[in-house]
Amino acid sequence: MSTRTSSATPPEFDTRHFRNALSQFATGVTVITTRLEDGSFLGLTASSFNSVSLDPPLVLWSLAQGASSLPVFSGNSHYVINVLAGNQAALAERFAMRIENRFDGVEFVLSRTGLPILKGAAAWFECHNRSRYPEGDHVIFVGEVEQCEVYPVPALAYHGGKFFSTHAAPG
C-alpha cells in the first residue's frame, strides 16, 4: 500500500522560513557512529531521531542525500545511535564539525560489533541497518535495535538553534 501523493500544492514559504518553523520543535541530540573500511570510526551529529516500533524494536534517523558519509552508512550492516546527555553539547558540536578525526580525545567503548559507544551518553542503541528510504533531500534510515542501554541523566536537547539540558526524568 502506497501512501505517497503527488497532489501537494507548492509551498508559500522559503527554505529559511521552513527551517525557522522546524526550530521550534525541541529535539533530542544524537551522535550516530559506525566504522569505515580501514577500521577507523565515523560519527555525526543528528537530531532527526525517532522511535518507530516496539515489536520489532525499530528506530529511525535521517541523513542528507549530499552527505559524504551517506555511502558508508548506507553500506554498513550496523551503527550505534548515542543519545547525548545534557552536559555533552561540546560533543554534539564536535561531531557536527568538518574535522579530520572527530574521535580524537573522545572517550568511548566498543559495542559487540566493534562500534563506538560514547561514554556519558544518556542512552545508546546498536542497530542493524534494516532499511533506507530516499525522501526529498534526505535518506531515512530505519534501524532494528539489537542492543540498547539507558542511563537516567538529563538529556541534551536542541531548540531555536541552541543546545540545552533537560531535567532528569522521574526515577
From TrEMBL:
Any one GO MF term held by the record is:
riboflavin reductase (NADPH) activity
Q: Coiled-coil segments, which residues?
A: none
Occurrences of domain Flavin reductase like (ranges): 22-165
Q: What is this protein called?
A: Flavin reductase
Organism from which the protein derives: Noviherbaspirillum cavernae
Tell me which Pfam families the record gives: Flavin_Reduct
Q: Which UniProt keywords apply?
A: Oxidoreductase
Q: Which family does it belong to?
A: Belongs to the non-flavoprotein flavin reductase family.
Q: Which InterPro entries match?
A: Flavin_Rdtase-like_dom, NADH-dep_flavin_reductase, Split_barrel_FMN-bd
Q: Say which domain of life the source belongs to.
A: Bacteria
Keyword flag Oxidoreductase: yes
